[in-house]
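Table 4 source record.
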Amino acid sequence: MNRSCRSLICASAILVGLLGCATPPQDPEDRAQWEEENDPLEPLNREIFAVNRVIDGLLIKPAAMIYRGVVPEEGRDAIRNVLGNLKEPVYAANHLLQGDLGGAGDAVARFAVNTTVGVAGIMQPSADMGLPRQPNDFGKTLHIWGTGEGPYLVLPLLGPSNPRDTAGLVADALMDPFMWAASANDMNWITYTRTGLDILDRRAQVIDTLDDIERNSLDFYAQIRTLTKQRRTEELRRAAERAAASADIERAPTARIDPGGAQLAAIERR
């Protein structure tokens, strides 16, 4: 196991240990506020947030603006498609770990179709076949397994997160077969390039949105915290519903041929 992988494992262990660090206050009003924010590390988080903004303003945002200006939209879509296609094995693994066999099968099918017919994922013919991409991650898996999110965290460069999702990032990296293949062949530059392009493309997509939020926020940090938690809560809800629907179908194998409306509706939710 190379040094980077050992570092990822150690970081994951430390972050999982943070899951129980935050203790809620006993006063009902204070507890309600605490549960909404869940940010006992706010002074440190704000410091990291400020540093991230400086780095973003000096390096990441300008690079993303150049990327958006130089690479045409069709080219950015192709890059995004390839990057997404390379994540499908990790999506499939997490669907399996969540008990979502249908989602795992869809991910494998998407990867096969897009890699072959879609020319290494540049195009997404799977979408026309009724198989739109279903991003998944180990943070969602831990949530479905009942692991608490822990306190709100702002990570250097990576931004808003929490211990559960940060541990999930580490686990997803360790599950990535392309990272292992690159490492085994002394081609780690491929992983670094892929990660850099992913960060660049993601930042380019939200340049205008983040600028608008910053202009209209009295407290940019608090607004980002609120929006991030709202978005993640919705993602977790959808993942849990999908896993539950898949489990229901597995327990009722006749649902695929039974004409009953409730059973057909359960299948359609997949």
